[in-house]
Amino acid sequence: MLAIYCKELRSYFINAVGYVYSGIFLALAALLCCFTTIKSASYSTSAYFTYLIFAMVVLIPLLTMRLFAEERKLRTEQLLLTAPVSLTGMVLGKFFAAFTLFVTTVIISCINFFPLYAVAVVERNNGSYSTTHIGPVTSEIVGRTIGVILIGAAFIAIGLFISALTENQLSAAVITIAVLAGTVALSLANQYINVYAIRFVLDWLCILGRYANFSYGMFDWSALLYYFSISSVFLFLTIRVYDRRRWN
């Protein structure tokens, strides 16, 4: 698995995919931070992370579209299937390579919050500590960042599975965007459904449904288990796709 992981992580920067993704993500995160801060005239991060999740619907397929689709297109898939590594190790190696790049860009983008801390310190020193102070800002940022990382892990697992189903990178990207957009749309539509039974079912299908507690700076173990389960299910499905393909 480690060899696959290193190979995939290195390949992101051998071609332009890693640079394009990192550049777009960091630039967009900076612009969103400026836009939401100016719009709200505050250092509230709620809108910033909401917009960032919407942007991930388009950005994460850039990471996942090539992982398996490129192998099939270049006819190197058989080398993977006959390599001295298990299918689980192969899939996890590719998953963690994409996840590492994603988490790295998310952590680097947290530089955008340094000016917010400066504002909080100034307001605390001016005597307005009771209304705006560093503690809640820190907990909200940490909670929402963890939530975004967990959502990103689920998105990457979904994109990895879709990439395993096609040999065309563009098709993999478009289908992944459509599926991820559908999960976000379910979360938005669920707010307007009055039938409890339907809302309960959709709540289990909506990936964003478990993000609420993180947005308040609370660590939700049930949400952690949910996102881990979603990621595990799609990674298992990807393994099953290649298990069938190996014997065909």
Protein traits:
0% strand, single chain, 248 residues
Task: Walk me through this protein's architecture.
Mean pLDDT is 80; it is low at 128-135. This protein has one domain (2-247). It starts with a helix and ends with a helix. The protein is 78% helix and 0% strand. The protein is globular, with a radius of gyration of 20 Å. The chain has helices at residues 2-14, 17-40, 46-64, 69-73, 77-82, 87-109, 114-125, 134-163, 169-189, 196-205, 212-215, 221-247.
Summarize the helices and strands and which ones pair or pack:
Elements: H1 2-14, H2 17-40, H3 46-64, H4 69-73, H5 77-82, H6 87-109, H7 114-125, H8 134-163, H9 169-189, H10 196-205, H11 212-215, H12 221-247
Average per-residue pLDDT, rounded, comes to 80
- Helix percent band: over 70%
Strand % is: under 5%
Q: How many strand elements?
A: 0
Sheet with most strands: none
Gyration radius from CA atoms, angstroms: 20 Å
Q: What oligomerization state is this entry in? A: single chain
Instruction: Classify the secondary structure makeup into a structural class.
Output: mainly alpha
Figure out the total of helices.
12
Unreliably modeled segments: 128-135
Instruction: List SSEs in N-to-C order.
Output: HHHHHHHHHHHH
* Amino- and carboxy-terminal Cα gap: 23 Å
Provide the number of structural domains: 1
Shape: globular
